[in-house]
Amino acid sequence: MAVVLTIIAVLLLIWWLLRFVPAGVEAHMPMPYSTALDRHLWVPAVIGAVWSAALGCWWGAALYAVLLVLVIAGESPYYRHLFGRTANTSRATANTATDGTDRPGASADGVIRAMTLNCRYGRADAENIVRLVRERHIDVLALEELTDELVERLSHAGLNALLPYCQQGAQHAGDNGGFNAIWSRAEPVGRIATFLNIHAADVPAITIDADACGTPGAPSDPGRQVTFAAAHTKSPMRGCREWSYGVRALDAIATSPKPVVVLGDLNACLDHRCLRDVLATGVHDASLDVAHGPTLTFPSWTPWPRIELDHALANSGVVFHSVQAITVRDTDHRALLVTLSVR
């Protein structure tokens, strides 16, 4: 048994270390799925260490201990607040995001509240979505896996009265689960049906004045404009190469001369090399900026084991202040809510 435990420890270590293979290499089954579970390898690490120690297999126990340390190290960027190293956010707003006490009300000048949700083939509860928009005073809403029928239900539930401006992505036969759309409280100064080419459903985008949400009718300032895009990368089951390409293509926002925010189900977490490569270009993630732990969004129906697939990414022109996940009825993803401002 000691030999078996040691072999299992070695295999688990190899599993975890596969996160470092180049992004193109990870685009093969089952790596996208196995890598997504890296954060949960602490479970076999603890069990294996205790079992090995009980059998007197100290080599095996040591290997499991190494695995446990590696798993913790892989999660450490989400907990920089323990070392006073949160990025561009206050402790107060970060605490608000994680304890779920974000209160509704008018957005402060320059502060934008955004929300994204994967609607699971258009099955998400429209009234639940609209209620969240109303109660959380959402200024920008990005939805993925939409259908025409869900858009109609959202309209009947009152979404257009709250967020009257909408840009949809064009519908294609190869869309992954449905099309994407983005709504805004403020009148856009620009809009486009395809903002990025990620080999998946179109990425619609709108550009608004950052101050228009808190101060309706305020004069537009080109220096305060920010673009919001709704993205949904291919899931690995629909094509590993397209999945990897789609995630890596998000690095295009790093070089944008104007502030850009990408909201959506990106089908990737920090354990995936392709997403880490994007972040290495200067793109930053809301959960990492707030640094109070990953914002776990999938699956919605169980608190554990969950992973972080839905993200709010931005370039250097944007500062994230809070991030929170909320369960919505009839969809397998949780909604991701963020507050942000333009530098």
From TrEMBL:
Q: Where is the Endonuclease/exonuclease/phosphatase domain?
A: 115-333
For this protein, the record's Pfam families field holds:
Exo_endo_phos
Q: Which residues cross the membrane?
A: 51-73
Question: Which ranges form a coiled coil?
Answer: none
Q: Which InterPro entries match?
A: Endo/exonu/phosph_ase_sf, Endo/exonuclease/phosphatase
| Any GO molecular function | endonuclease activity
This protein's name: Endonuclease/exonuclease/phosphatase domain protein
SUPFAM superfamilies with a match to the protein in the record: DNase I-like
Q: Which UniProt keywords apply?
A: Endonuclease, Exonuclease, Hydrolase, Membrane, Nuclease, Transmembrane, Transmembrane helix
